[in-house]
Amino acid sequence: MEIEGYKLLEQIGQGGMAQVYKGYQLSLKRVVAIKVLTKNLVDQKAFNQRFSRESLIIARLSNPYIIPVIERGISSDNTPYFVMEFIEGRDLKVHMDDDSLNFNRKLDVTIQICKGLSYAHKNGVIHRDIKPANILIDEEGNAKVMDFGIAQYYEDETDNEKTRADVVMGTVAYMSPEQIKSAALVTYKSDIYSLGVMLYKLFTRCDPVGRFKEPRELNPEIPQVLNDVILQCLETDPETRPDSVSDIKDKLLSLSRGAHLEAAQRQRAQLGIKNFELLDVIKEDKFSAVYLYENKADNKLIMIKKRSIGQSGFTEAKVLSKLKHNNIINILGTSQNEKLYIIVMEYLSGGNLQERLLNPLPWQEFVELGKNILQGLAFAHTNRVVHGNLRPSNILFDHSNRIKLTDFGLIEHYKDSKNKKNNYSLPKEKLSDRSDIFAAGVIFHEILFGHKPDVKTKKFKENIEFKRMPIKLQLIISKMLEVNPLERPASCAQIVTIFEQIIGDNEESKTRLIQSEQPTQIKSSPTTIITKAPLIGSLMFLLILLNLSLVLAFYYFKPEQFFAMINFIHQLFS
């Protein structure tokens, strides 16, 4: 077998439906991993489709804890393949077999798995085969989830595998009870069950089979928090399992107390911080750093952002710390010294919008989200606070998926780079309420259609999906994206009103549709005639219109023309 542009070096893995080879990409002169469909499955349509879908799913997932796809294609002997980043390391099963991980390393690996799986779930992707062999750990100790070969978008109603009750996919020892029964019952909570099986084995070296013992009974060193998390994951009823993988991650972070972080990271994070215990690093770059802490006083999780003195954002944070709004992150406090300033905020476990832009959102689902973004901006503008750098990464979600805006007034990072530009603002436009409106318009287009709009040519107006939206929504987004600020709406409050109208129209349309499907019974004789009210209304309207037309025709036409028209109508309805 030959793959154009690559050289196969050696086989490094074998699964139920594919082999994995270590390969060499000739063009970029780098080592890669190449996954090839098993020979005896090549002619089976279902397996070909599943294999092809795996590469598409992973290619869309961009996360440090998921192995990315580089390329896919068909080999010289018509065998499907795809190319992945090559990771030097061993899978978690090997580590479990030789018991090479201590407790803290096991906890660290679990937290990383949760981060990758949480990202996938937020984008509607269920793995469906979480097990130690599908977790690769590189030489630096970084865990990466791999083999999404049987994963699916659980919101994809066109996927026949989802609705076929006889399809059971995955590894039986790690399957949830509902997954064993039917693929149609699988949800992201099925992954949580599989994660629970894996954690039980990881920390006890035993299988949770039958009436299994609690983890602490097998390994007294397991803390009660971890014991309870594992047992909750293994609940037979999906409804009683943890609400999300993010919730599991947060509990494990509280248990870890930052043990997985490097000493230098901990030192940077703790600089200028008192009364808070470091749990994790959310983001760290040359512009700013965001850390997850636990408040020692009440054990609540909080986020702390650090920025160098002289950088923008402190004034806006101070103003907002005295205000509260449902769609703006709660700022609990601010402080500064001669070197840096600090913003203390509530912790939001739902991640940010940037992590959820894998697939376009239908306009019916978008309008409430868009309204919440606009409400947050409108409140800030009323209090003379301009965001100035609105983008998907600073639109956050809480545990109930409510939108909250953050990072008001922070300088554009792109200004410090020659190779990047701010795609959410226009060059040389001054920051104002209307520049925030433009940024929101770009984000709305990205949510709805999966890419940013071409605002200069306005080609987005010709998009078929754009034209299918309500005319009110088309018009308001078009106005938000006007290049001339004066041609945009004057305020976010005005746009909120329009969004509320669109939501109301949509609800009214749903109500009318439901009512039109309900039959009305009319007794005109011993026989009951079933009819629909809208049909009667339509007929009455046509009769009135016909009578009016006849009156006008009699007035404007000559007698012979009028009677000729009457004769035509009589023939038409005979």
Task: Tell me what you see in this structure.
- There is one protein chain.
- This protein has 574 residues and is an alpha+beta fold.
- It has five domains: 1-86, Phosphorylase Kinase, domain 1 (2-Layer Sandwich); 89-257, Orthogonal Bundle (Transferase(Phosphotransferase), domain 1), CATH 1.10.510; 263-346, 2-Layer Sandwich (Phosphorylase Kinase, domain 1); 353-511, Transferase(Phosphotransferase) domain 1 (Transferase(Phosphotransferase), domain 1, Orthogonal Bundle), CATH 1.10.510.10; 523-573, no CATH class.
- Helices cover 39% and strands 18% of the residues.
- It has 18 helices and 19 strands.
- It has a five-stranded antiparallel sheet, with helices on one face. Strands 11-12-13-15-14 form a five-stranded antiparallel sheet, sandwiched between helices.
- Helix 3 runs antiparallel to helix 9 and helix 6 crosses helix 8.
- The termini are far apart.
- Residues 154-167, 522-533 and 570-574 have low confidence and may be disordered.
